[in-house]
Predict the structure of TetR/AcrR family transcriptional regulator.
Amino acid sequence: MPRSKGDHEARRRDVSAAVWQVMATRGFAGLTLRAVAAELGASTGLLTHYFPTKRALVEYALDLLEQRTLSRPRREAGQGLAALRDALLDILPLTPEAVDSNRVWVSSWDAALSDPALSADYARKYAQGRERLRSRVAAAQDLGELPRGDPAHIAAGAQSFVLGLVVQALFDPVTFTPERQVELLDGYLAALAGGGSGRG
Amino acid sequence: MPRSKGDHEARRRDVSAAVWQVMATRGFAGLTLRAVAAELGASTGLLTHYFPTKRALVEYALDLLEQRTLSRPRREAGQGLAALRDALLDILPLTPEAVDSNRVWVSSWDAALSDPALSADYARKYAQGRERLRSRVAAAQDLGELPRGDPAHIAAGAQSFVLGLVVQALFDPVTFTPERQVELLDGYLAALAGGGSGRG
């Protein structure tokens, strides 16, 4: 009997899950056909059907990372400053799933920085992220929740703050618990809003 | 004639320079004996004398990164808030040399996160960095230049801010020129000092 479309889709999902698991535990440096095959309990021969080259595997992994990032659930609770806070919370590694995807993002920076096309693509993605933050900063300013000042400038600062917090939290999850990450972000937003560093 | 100690030292310096150059352009993912040999204009055979295994090469590269970080020139101009600013400026990729070393640091995160011992070592280094910042935050508070508040909390935020700014600047040096990086840092420090986000 020929295999059905459902079998094929199920197998693709298994392959994706295995690639993701390898990236989340070993990073891009550890992403090999052999490691994915072991994770999947399959032969490397089967995998060469999906990924004829190492480059094909890396490209698939990068696509998977982007899909998972785009499709992740997002907070949509507030407006103004609360909406800015939601967008920044969405980036932080506050859940095991968000730890995995941030781990994979940080891991992908090495490959991305070595490849001019990929590096330009990442620069464009981060610029889009800043633009989304900028519009939320401007809305918070309109509501009088943030002082006036170039919203693009404030958005670039906010993106820097959360990216660096991601890195710190990945290396030191004991110090940077989810609670502490949220506390640091709220301290940052309070300082932006004009309260200075003076919390805690 | 036997080769002198001076020859040996000169050769070691050449090897170090070649390893550094490969890391700065291709990252850890591109760090191979073959790439270092090509950079050095030598045979891979010669290099196996220095690095019998890939692991030995990676360990050497990590040591080199640490040495270069520890021995880099540092700003020592101010005290209080100015000293905090100096310490944060020392981290940013404001010169070609600092771009290279930050590029290598960011690249090393992939390898470090996949290795529990190395990851713990990085967490320790970042904790030491935060401690140095904390003492400068406390000094700025004593001078009345920063509002009261847990200095460790403020130091963790400041470290996050500059680490994320490093990543942004590496991916998008056209947007994040040295001038813009300094401007963003000064905006951050002004907000901490109680001015809110309102510059620009």
Summary: Residues 73 and 122 of chain B are 21 Å apart (CA to CA). The mean pLDDT of chain B is 90.
